[in-house]
Amino acid sequence: MPIYDYYCPHCRRRVSLFYRTFSLAAAATPACPRCGHQDLRRLVSRVAVVRSEEARLEAMTDPSFLDGLDEEDPRALARLMRRMSDELGEEMDPEFDEVIDRLESGQSPEDIEKEMPALAGETAADDDDFGE
Prior knowledge:
Blueprint: E1 3-8, E2 13-18, H1 22-27, E3 41-42, H2 53-61, H3 74-88, H4 94-104, H5 109-115
Helix pairs in contact: 3-4
């Protein structure tokens, strides 16, 4: 079931048209659903590729996944964390989003850890290295 995107120069809008089959799409004369104008320009549509969890995890093991990572730049770390989240395809906790937001603003991981000790699993009872 193809969906095609068009630009209507008459009403200056982007419109999407749905066709039940490719043959219907090929035979159709597209018209703008808003103004009825038929001089539409076809746009390149975004393509979604469905990948298995294994394929997504494998993509993260490719060394090129770490390209552009500067260990001293919190913003670069935030970009990597967003890419990893996108690859996993799962929505993350609000705390994860907050950490990324802080990194994107330039805050260091050490400062974030000090201000958000619960993320590191620390409690008031964890005062020494041995948990005693």
